[in-house]
Amino acid sequence: MNVAFFLLPKAEVVYLSPRSTLRQALERMERHRYSAVPLVDEEGRYAGTITEGDLLWYIKNNAGLDLERAEQVRLCDIPQHVQNQPVSIYAEMRDLIRLAAEQNFVPVVDDRGLFIGIVRRREIIEYCARLLWATDPPADRSGSEARAQVEAGPQEGVKDEHTGAS
Q1: 10 Å Cβ neighbour count for 6?
Q2: Could you tell me the residue range of the domain that residue 112 belongs to?
Q3: For residues 83 and 40, what is the distance between their CA atoms, to the nearest angstrom?
Q4: Which of 50, 55, 89, 104 is the most buried (most CB within 10 A)?
Q5: Is the Cβ–Cβ distance between 119 and 7 less than 8 Å?
Q6: What pLDDT is attached to residue 105?
Q7: Looking at the domain assignment, is residue 116 inside a domain?
Q8: In a domain, 152, yes or no
Q9: Alpha-carbon separation of residue 84 from 49, 66, 140, 149 (angstroms)
């Protein structure tokens, strides 16, 4: 399995430029309900990830910051507290999984270092769950029922037989 199988292409990714403003980041993240977005520079290279936490720390440490001033602050001037590492499109699955354990998404770059998209942790977990169910289905379900359950996702109001949670 390779990284391209999981790739959400750049055209479908919400990202910002390091030259975008604090206000633009707040509005874009609110609109899409994201807690972090990748930064892509003018040459198309991955330039980091800006998080809600980065923005909140900046606002907290800059008393008197209003929306007018937020339009003047560039994202490249806001410290990034988390350094999400990208992977090459040719990376091994173990590298992708290692990074996804720590990051909500993993930025992907091509052999020239250009940003080409992301892999979301959710897709990796769903893939691993499908493999797990296919090789070791619960005793009270057939393999095909287990696979269908994973593909369908959780059902509201249905309790987990092991934890009792719904």
Answers
A1: 22
A2: 3-120
A3: 14
A4: 50
A5: yes
A6: 94
A7: yes
A8: no
A9: 6, 29, 41, 32
* Number of compact structural domains in the chain: 1
11 within a domain of the structure (yes/no): yes
Residue 165 included in any domain: no
Ranges under pLDDT 70 in the chain: 137-166
For residue 151, give the H/E element and its range: helix 143-152
User: From CA 151, how far away is CA 155, in angstroms rounded?
Assistant: 11
Q: Which pLDDT belongs to residue 74?
A: 97
pTM given for the model: 0.76
d(CA 26, CA 16): 11
CA distance 120 to 98: 13
pLDDT digits (tens, 9 = 90+) for 3-34: 899 999 999 999 999 999 999 999 999 999 99
- C-alpha 3/C-alpha 16 separation (Å) is 23
CATH at 23: 3.10.580.10
